[in-house]
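tmp note - Phosphoenolpyruvate carboxykinase
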Amino acid sequence: MRRFPAKIGEFIFHMHCKNTTFTEFFHTYFMSHNTVQNEIPDITLTIKDSYGIPFVNYDVSTTREPDHIIYKRADYLISIDNTFEKAEISAYNELALKHALMNLFSAFIVHRNWGLLIHSSCVVDNEGAHLFSGHSGAGKSTVAMLSNPRDLLSDEATIVKITENKITIFDSPFRSDSKPLGEKIQSYPLKSIQFLNQAMLNQRILINQSDAFIQIIDKVFYWPNDSKDMKSIFSMLKQLVTLVPIYDLHFKKDNTFWEMIS
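out:
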């Protein structure tokens, strides 16, 4: 059995894979930090393959048993103990495994009341992170591409740590078209959030906290299993929209929109 120790956000994951099917996936997206090889893991994860059928849709069923929680999709199955210290994933292929890991990590950080996983891209500029979100097709991938050569912290799922007085973004391994920065960077403070709208002219409009809360709530990757967790999510989102300015960004398909952000 292969072991892949990795740091995701501030947490140590020890991932054990029973065969080599997913080895390349782990080496590409979950770079093993030498500094965490011998650290006690926050969660230990066993991964199996040959489960289910190819991707059908994003529908996930959640079942809470006395001692564990089960998340099930056509192409993956997750079982997590109630302490969130041990978990098992069975996945059909790499796409299923990536989505299962996003599901697991989201549940883990909400359980810890640490932060959220948000459907977005996130770019570093002038020592700060700027998050770009929106509906499917709004331009998250386009913005990520147009932001080159700036460092890209995420292109699909952004790891957001939320505390009483600070919002911090971490390099995300949950990606579609780019690779993690690895040990090049640790984290950056979040300076702004943009909801994307493709347009003929660039314009950035500050929106109020209530509207921002409504717009961002459905961008959180989360599959409900506990009403207590939903209260935690609402509380963290309220803190997020309080601490970070949020805008509607109307942008042309070139990099000139950065003139309004930098």
